[in-house]
Amino acid sequence: MCGTDGCLVKCSSVSCATPENDTKDTSTTINLDHGDPTMYESYWRKMGNKCDITFNGDDSLSYFSSGKSLCWFLESKLEEQIKRLHNVVENAIVDDYYIVVGTGSSQLMQAALYALSPTDQLEPISVVSATPFYSSYPEVTDFVKSGLHKWAGDARTFEKNGPFIEFITSPNNPDGVIREPVVNGNQGKLIYDLAYYWPQYTAITSPANHDVMLFTISKCTGHAGSRIGWALVKDKEVAKKMTKFIEISTIGVSKEAQLRAAKILEVVSDSCLDPKMENFFEYSQSLMSDRWKRLRQVVMANDFFVLQKYPFQYCLFTKDFCESHPAFAWLICKGGEEEDCQKLLKEHKIHTRSGRRFGSDLRNVRINGDTSYFAGAEKKDDMWVHAAYVVRIL
Ligand SMILES: Cc1ncc(COP(=O)(O)O)c(C=O)c1O
């Protein structure tokens, strides 16, 4: 699915002749376009064999899980650890919610769209999100041209009467802002994408308790490769329809991935409760905070860009006031609206994602800050800061 955050194009060493000197330019292209949350690698390396799980040849053969969940393929160990972690972090209410597991929260977005779309309408239900919105929503909504739902763009300018579905991403990708629904209509169905509602990115201000909430291990612990996401769903019929969607598309979700995810979540909760362990969220928050501090220093010293500002808020988890440290930085070019920030940075060999992809202006770009290291450079020299040095010379 190239063009989404899953697009795997790695940074590469380019060697090309420049028109000015006609000699070989061996500088490296920095790819800050896609998100790939490998930045917590150092923490997981330190955990050593704490997260190991083994499978025998005769384990997990069945399509079915042994639990009694409405989501018949959900492993009970994963269900238990999801509930435990939300209770430890206090970022979502889990009591009286149905849990639906998916192959990443990307699959759950599709399942939720399917489940919330009315089947008795003559035309597809409109799907909206306020700009700048996560760039995958339009593709996820329209990819198979289902006839059930149709992308209708920016929620702020949506004026059609009748039913609609609104995606609310909070904190938001790309700009890290805490969001609420924007469409004023009583026929709206809301999907809360809470992929980044974890303490390393933002203050946990209250336990979320919306009708449909999506979470993913990709952004919580950085295990994007396991492809595990979960939905907390209030309404039984919606949870049933989401489960049916996953049954029809993939007959469930890999048991190996679910059990690995359960182990990882268990270790994260343990790390928060056991003072002898290094708290995962404290570690990841300090890593993000360090990246943001360095990026802000560089951007402030530069006259060309500004960064999004975030409020200090009290966090229930850290029991302290903290600022947001989003996984992405939303750079705003100070020039006029016609300034093409992505093009400008590309000329300096930094690949970013244009604001246009998020339904916003050309003068905005999103740069990814969740990847571990800049291949070929010093390990401590992460891609983001490397890019910041280039920004400084602009
Ligand atoms: C807001 C948001 N939701 C969902 C996802 C996808 O997560 P997953 O890896 O679980 O499919 C991403 C990935 O970048 C994201 O930014």
From TrEMBL:
<keyword id="KW-0032">Aminotransferase</keyword>
<dbReference type="InterPro" id="IPR015424">
    <property type="entry name" value="PyrdxlP-dep_Trfase"/>
</dbReference>
<dbReference type="InterPro" id="IPR015421">
    <property type="entry name" value="PyrdxlP-dep_Trfase_major"/>
</dbReference>
<dbReference type="Pfam" id="PF04864">
    <property type="entry name" value="Alliinase_C"/>
</dbReference>
<dbReference type="InterPro" id="IPR006948">
    <property type="entry name" value="Alliinase_C"/>
</dbReference>
<keyword id="KW-0663">Pyridoxal phosphate</keyword>
<keyword id="KW-0808">Transferase</keyword>
<protein>
    <recommendedName>
        <fullName>Alliinase C-terminal domain-containing protein</fullName>
    </recommendedName>
</protein>
<dbReference type="GO" id="GO:0006520">
    <property type="term" value="P:amino acid metabolic process"/>
</dbReference>
<dbReference type="InterPro" id="IPR037029">
    <property type="entry name" value="Alliinase_N_sf"/>
</dbReference>
<feature type="domain" description="Alliinase C-terminal">
    <location>
        <begin position="30"/>
        <end position="368"/>
    </location>
</feature>
<dbReference type="GO" id="GO:0008483">
    <property type="term" value="F:transaminase activity"/>
</dbReference>
<dbReference type="InterPro" id="IPR015422">
    <property type="entry name" value="PyrdxlP-dep_Trfase_small"/>
</dbReference>
<comment type="similarity">
    <text>Belongs to the alliinase family.</text>
</comment>
<dbReference type="InterPro" id="IPR050478">
    <property type="entry name" value="Ethylene_sulfur-biosynth"/>
</dbReference>
<dbReference type="GO" id="GO:0016846">
    <property type="term" value="F:carbon-sulfur lyase activity"/>
</dbReference>
